Amino acid sequence: MMTRVAFPPRWPARLGWLALAGYAAYASTSLDFTWKRLVAGIDHGARFMARLWPPDLAPDRMELLASGLAESLQIAIIATAVGVMVALPLGMAAARNLAPLPVAWSARALIALLRTFHPVIVAILFVKAVGFGALAGILALIVASLGFLSRLVAEAVEEVSMQPVEALRATGASSLSIVVMSVLPQVMPRFIGFSAYQLDSNLRNSALVGLVGGGGIGATLFTAFQRFDYDFVLTIVIAVVAVVMLGEIASGFMRRLFQ
Amino acid sequence: MAAPQQPAGSVADRTLVIRHLHKEYLAGEPVLRDLSLTVPGHGVTAVIGPSGTGKSTLIRCINRLVDPTSGEIMFRGQDLARLSGRALRLARRRIGMVFQEYNLVERLSVIENVLCGRLGYLPVWRAWLRRFPAVDIDRAFDLLDAAGLGEFATQRADQLSGGQRQRVGIARALMQEPDLLLADEPTSSLDPKTSVEIMELIASRAAERSIPVMINIHNVELARRFADRIIGLARGEIVFDGPPGALEESHLVRIYGGEGWLE
Questions:
Q1: Does A193 score more than 90 pLDDT?
Q2: Domains present along chain B, CATH in parentheses
Q3: What is the C-alpha to C-alpha distance for residues A241 and A253, in angstroms, rounded to an integer?
């Protein structure tokens, strides 16, 4: 009698894992990823950590910190607001169940383009284009927000129940009225959730784009590093962590409010 | 004070005349085959037949949720099959439709769902801001009161039971002040008692307004009880057309096939 096999070996998967492990091993040798360097690095790290403490709380530094944080907050809020307003129509245009196909595909291509690069790379481009400062940071985060939000809007719209859409079409409503009365109500709660998440994420990324010249607390942080003011660096890091946590709480609250 | 009989197909008359209606979703596989039918401008016309026989397609061709492949659908002096764009929207405003799954916007309130019946008459910004004309709001409340749902007006539609939702669906269709009421299996998702109530509601509201109703239904008993005329559809063709009294077992065998299910 033949033994029946319930779980046949999957050779493609096994070979895939083997190849991945092999390549990782090869790559680590070619990149000088060695134990010796890791130990030396820990040593450097320990000395750096020692110089961080205690955080610098001098009044002039606190002033710098406050203005940097305020600018980051403004960057995040402006970018989110613009992103939210543009993402809704752009996302709808990209939904294949509502928009005519050529429109949907063009919108999808645009969204893919917006999502191609990490916000930091986009920020570098904008710093080159419009110069150092908050404007570059805002533009970079608008691009990031648009890419993320409009893609999620498109997906949410594609999952909408078409039954009420059909019913409103049968009443003789125009396409826009149908969208307003049957698509938006279905998408809105999720959209508000996405927007809250995006505000949260813009808050974090606003520190990041500052590092490459996009203004805000990131710029303050970068300057502190350059001047070896490591104690001030620690102050900034603590402040950023606090703000990000507050942002997370606020966005969670916002999501609950609109469920 | 009945209006003098108008010639069929004229603007004032509500007779629906379907001629040579043909529909293929896939080339070479017709769902409706050269179907011709006149639905009188009053009373309930029930279309019975097995699932997948084209009942839904037929009713959806009339308000053009489905585009016919060929044929004519004459109603109030227009060929509905040829309309497009704005003209089609204007024609749809005068045709109410009730759906099997109610097709309400679940996240909107009951009264908003009823007011959706007026969307064809409103610019989009008024819909967006919920600035419906006061007359419409009054009528919506009246329709809800008449359906016994007045107290639910501001509740969300997803909090209602199936029967209540269907009443809202009917109110939305009546809100259009239609010249024709279409119903696609309006009772198939409901229990037997609620089904009868819903059929009563549809038949009585249509009679009050003296508008014709065309209703798809697979429950033969309900069709017999509420229809003035029954059309039997099988494989995309009409195989029975007559008053409920004339519908016999031999017809049901022709419509549904087989015999074992008929006791």
A1: no
A2: 42-65+87-255 (3.40.50.300)
A3: 18
Name chain B contacts of A188, Cβ cutoff 8 Å: 107
d(CA A10, CA A36): 39
Query: Does any CB of chain B come closer than 8 Å to the CB of residue A175?
Result: no
In the prediction, which pLDDT does A161 show? 94
Closest chain B CA to residue A160: B105
> Taking the model in full, what pTM does it have?
0.81
User: Would you say residue A234 lies in a domain?
Assistant: yes
Say yes or no for a CB contact (<8 Å) between A166 and B119.
no
- Mean pLDDT of all residues in B141-150: 94
**A106 interface with B at CB cutoff 8 Å:** no
How many cross-chain Cβ pairs, A to B, lie less than 8 Å apart?
84
Q: pLDDT tens digit string along B172-227?
A: 999 999 999 999 999 999 999 999 999 999 999 999 999 999 999 988 999 999 99
Question: E strands, B66-130, where?
Answer: 70-75, 78-79, 95-98
Cβ separation B119–A189 shorter than 8 A: no
Interchain contact A259–B (C-beta under 8 A):
no
Query: Is it the case that residue B2 has pLDDT exceeding 50?
Result: no
Flag whether pLDDT at B4 surpasses 60.
Answer: no
Structure tokens at B195: 């089904």
Tell which of B63, B107, B180 to mutate to test the A interface (max A CBs under 10 Å): B107
- Token pair listed for B52: 């997948």
ipTM: 0.90
Average pLDDT score over residue span A209-232: 86
Cα separation, B79 vs B100, in Å, equals 26
pLDDT digits (tens, 9 = 90+) for A137-186: 899 999 999 999 999 999 999 999 999 999 999 999 999 999 999 999 99
CATH number at residue A67: 1.10.3720.10
The predicted-structure confidence for A51-94, as pLDDT tens digits, reads as follows 887 877 778 888 888 888 888 899 999 999 999 999 999 999 99
Task: Answer whether A174 sits within 8 Å of B120, measured CB to CB.
Answer: yes
- DSSP string across B138-169: HHHHHHHHHTT-GGGTTSBGGGS-HHHHHHHH
The backbone torsions φ and ψ at residue B18, rounded to the nearest 5 degrees and listed phi first, read -105, 130
Domains of chain A: total: 1
- Tell me if A4 is assigned to some domain: no
Query: Is residue A33 a part of any domain in this protein?
Result: no
Q: Quick check: B212 and B42 in contact, CB under 8 A?
A: yes
A167 in any annotated domain: yes
Distance CA B170, CA B183 (A): 9
Range(s) of the domain holding residue A128: 62-257
